Structure formats: structure tokens, C-alpha cells
């Protein structure tokens, strides 16, 4: 089901708000995400860096992990924004690890990923478009 314009704007605003909470003392590249459940609830996430680098967590995974830890497992869409020093500068696509986490919980052909530069400039993809031939639970004979 396609998102309505008002839902898209609400997600963009929520992602921008989340970006303001990013902890990025090393890269200074802030990312915010707003994850929409099928029931209409929004979970925010920001990127959280670490001096050891490997423990750094992306905004998208932060949002997913928050939602799943609260019992959510049905998602409709996510909006992602980002930029240096918290200024939106371009489209910020999810990394491969985040795409794989999305694949665990979402139907690739239905889950929508909004990449926004502003409320007027955004692109919408499906997870299937950004992660073709992704590895999912069905590859292990499981249904989630």
C-alpha cells in the first residue's frame, strides 16, 4: 500500500528530528531514521558512533532494534535523512547491513524506503529494489 503525502511528510519530519540526536564525534555525519509500523506507530533512530568504530550502529538499525525490542515485527516504511554536521546535503541510502536487517522483518516488494533531502525532495524505493536477491528467513526454510 503506497504511502500518502501526509504520511511521507510526517516520516521526513520525524527522521530529521531523530538526526538531531545522533552521536557522531568522529565522522560528524548525522543520520536519522523514522520507521513506520503497519499499525501507524513511528520509531525513531539515529546513528551512534564508537571510538572503536566496529560497535557503531546505524540510524536504521537503531530504529528497527528499538521497535523489535518493543514487540513490533510488522513494518510499512522507513525514512532516512543525513548530512554532515546535521545539515541535509543529499540522499542517504541505507548500508548493506541495514538493508539485510530490513530484509529480516519486511516483505521486500512492499516495504518502502524514503530517502529525503527535504520535504519537497525525496525518492521512494522498495526494499526489493535496493536489495535484489536478498537472503531471508525463507532461505533457511523459515517463515517469520
Q: Rg from C-alpha positions?
A: 14 Å
Strand fraction band? 15-25%
Shape: globular
Secondary-structure content class: alpha+beta
- Order of strands side by side in the largest beta sheet? 2-1-3-4-5
Helical percentage:
25-40%
Poorly predicted regions = none
Can you count the helices? 4
The main pleated sheet reads as: 5 strands, mixed
Number of strands: 5
SSE series: HEEHEHEEH
Cα distance spanning the termini: 20 Å
Give the integer mean of the pLDDT values. 96
Search tags:
144 residues; alpha+beta
Describe this structure in words.
The chain is α+β, with helices and mostly antiparallel strands. 28% of the residues lie in helices and 24% in strands. It contains four helices and five strands; from the N terminus they run αββαβαββα. The protein has helices at residues 5-19, 59-69, 96-105, 127-130, and strands at residues 29-37, 42-46, 75-84, 112-116, 122-126. A five-stranded mixed sheet has the order 2-1-3-4-5. A hairpin with a 4-residue loop joins strand 1 and strand 2. It is globular, with a radius of gyration of 14 Å.
Amino acid at each position: 500500500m503506497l504511502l500518502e503525502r501526509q504520511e511521507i511528510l510526517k516520516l521526513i519530519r520525524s527522521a530529521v528530528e531523530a538526526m538531531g540526536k545522533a552521536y557522531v564525534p568522529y565522522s560528524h555525519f548525522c543520520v536519522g531514521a523514522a520507521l513506520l509500523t503497519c499499525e501507524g506507530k513511528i520509531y525513531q533512530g539515529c546513528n551512534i558512533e564508537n571510538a572503536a568504530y566496529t560497535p557503531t550502529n546505524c540510524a536504521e538499525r537503531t530504529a528497527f532494534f528499538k521497535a523489535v525490542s518493543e514487540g513490533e515485527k510488522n513494518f510499512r516504511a522507513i525514512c532516512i535523512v543525513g548530512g554532515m554536521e546535521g545539515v541535509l546535503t543529499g540522499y542517504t541510502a541505507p548500508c548493506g547491513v541495514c538493508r539485510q536487517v530490513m530484509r529480516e522483518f519486511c516483505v521486500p516488494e512492499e516495504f518502502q524506503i524514503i530517502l529525503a533531502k527535504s520535504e519537497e525532495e525525496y525518492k521512494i524505493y522498495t526494499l526489493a529494489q535496493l536489495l535484489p536477491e536478498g537472503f531471508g528467513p525463507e532461505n533457511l526454510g523459515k517463515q517469520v
